Amino acid sequence: MPPQNSAHAPPFRVAMAGVVGRLIRCWCRRAVAGSLKVPALQLHVSKTAMGASQKDFENAMNQVKLLKEDPGNEVKLKLYALYKQATEGPCNTPKPGVFDLINKAKWEAWNALGSLPKETARQNYVDLVSGLSSSSDSSSQAKPEADRKQAEYETVVMTSEDGITKIMLNRPAKKNALTEQMYQEIMLALEAASKDDSTITVLTGNGDYYSSGNDLTNFTNIPPEGVEAKAKNSAILLRNFVGSFIDFPKPLVAVVNGPAVGISVTVLGLFDLVYATDRATFHTPFSHLGQTPEGCSSYTFPKIMGPAKAAEMLIFGKKLTAGEAYAQGLVTEVFPDSTFQKEVWTRLKAYSKLPQNALRISKQIIRSQEKEKLHAVNAKESSILQERWLSSECMNAIMNFFSQKAKL
Ligand SMILES: CCCC/C=C/CC(=O)SCCNC(=O)CCNC(=O)[C@H](O)C(C)(C)COP(=O)(O)OP(=O)(O)OC[C@H]1O[C@@H](n2cnc3c(N)ncnc32)[C@H](O)[C@@H]1OP(=O)(O)O
């Protein structure tokens, strides 16, 4: 790599890379395959097979034109090089000048094949196209797989469209209160979303609430091993749940479609964007429940909104309006409820078209600055809560919630 002495060198390189990319895209449209669309692929190019006929080669050239997704510049250059090698043999033209970017890139790809025999180049071209076609097919078959996975979730709905995977909490009659099953399913859904080919992952709620937080019946369902075991298992669940937000590798967006309570508020500090309807409220009534902050909020909230405002929320349980949450930095943007869904999804669809790897890597750079710290905070908060759940303050608060309901 050339030395980067000039302060302008990196932007220049970025700009030049953009120019090269545009030129190669343009060239590929004209010279190779029309409009190519294939995601990042693992290519297995045979170096030994020699059996491709001229007919196979021509079929492969036609197949390239039918690919559904863009294979990327690197693959397009490889296709070009193999085509030239298969039809003309080793590179036999002078190297283009340094400013002739597109022809230089093509020449280098072709020249890199050295003395590869024409027959091998032809076979490798056929193999490469066949790999692209099967990957393209399998990516277009992703939907049935997603549907199969969906059948495994009972409390969330997971869908993928337009580069966005949406995980929707789906207990509207219970205000999307989070049962133990739901924590598990959200973690599974996040895991699946982290590996799928979407660019952005969204968490939202079905119905009038985003989520009313931890389902308080989680604490009433005591196993035969006793309350200590229950508290211990709940702390492990909590730690794992929050951990999956800390470690989530792609841009994560909360579409807060209504009021949010407890843990559904605290983990917002771990999202990359938080869009809220103006109907949303943000409430962490931990002290009222004899509990303490979780979701890394004891660390993220003072950082986001300053210690005074964080204390008002986390210690004294002040409920924020969407406007207040925006003013305090917890929410990225507030939208009128009447246009919320339309505006948010339009915005997200545009964002999902940005270069996927750049988004993911940028998120990871930001997160890496404090990942260890977040995990340490999560562990501490979970362990403190394990104790709190055994306290009479907490037990009384939960009994009050259910006895008030019973009186109604
Ligand atoms: C692994 C463990 C991690 C633990 C960490 C998390 C900490 C927290 O999340 S603390 C926050 C806990 N949440 C709450 O305290 C909220 C409790 N719920 C309410 O205060 C009200 O239900 C709410 C203000 C959200 C909505 O009030 P309403 O509009 O009046 O609706 P209803 O109360 O009639 O609710 C409808 C239906 O849903 C049930 N519901 C709602 N939220 C919860 C909940 N969090 N837990 C259990 N059940 C909940 C409510 O009881 C009603 O049920 P039915 O009466 O059977 O219809």
From TrEMBL:
Listed EC numbers: 5.3.3.8
Domain ACB stretches: 53-138
This protein's pathway: Lipid metabolism; fatty acid beta-oxidation
Reaction(s) catalysed (UniProt annotation): (3E)-octenoyl-CoA = (2E)-octenoyl-CoA; (3E)-nonenoyl-CoA = (2E)-nonenoyl-CoA; a (3Z)-enoyl-CoA = a 4-saturated (2E)-enoyl-CoA; (2E)-tetradecenoyl-CoA = (3Z)-tetradecenoyl-CoA
Source organism, top-level taxon: Eukaryota
Annotated GO CC locations: mitochondrion; peroxisomal matrix
Region (Disordered), start-end ranges: 132-151
Matches recorded under Pfam families: ACBP, ECH_1
Keyword Transit peptide: yes
Compartments, as annotated in UniProt: Mitochondrion; Peroxisome matrix
An annotated Gene Ontology molecular function: fatty-acyl-CoA binding
UniProt keyword Isomerase, yes or no: yes
Keyword field: Acetylation, Isomerase, Mitochondrion, Peroxisome, Phosphoprotein, Transit peptide
Listed SUPFAM superfamilies: Acyl-CoA binding protein, ClpP/crotonase
Record PANTHER family: ENOYL-COA DELTA ISOMERASE 2, PTHR43684
Protein family per UniProt: In the C-terminal section; belongs to the enoyl-CoA hydratase/isomerase family.
Function field: Able to isomerize both 3-cis and 3-trans double bonds into the 2-trans form in a range of enoyl-CoA species. Has a preference for 3-trans substrates.
This protein's name: Enoyl-CoA delta isomerase 2
Gene this protein is translated from: ECI2
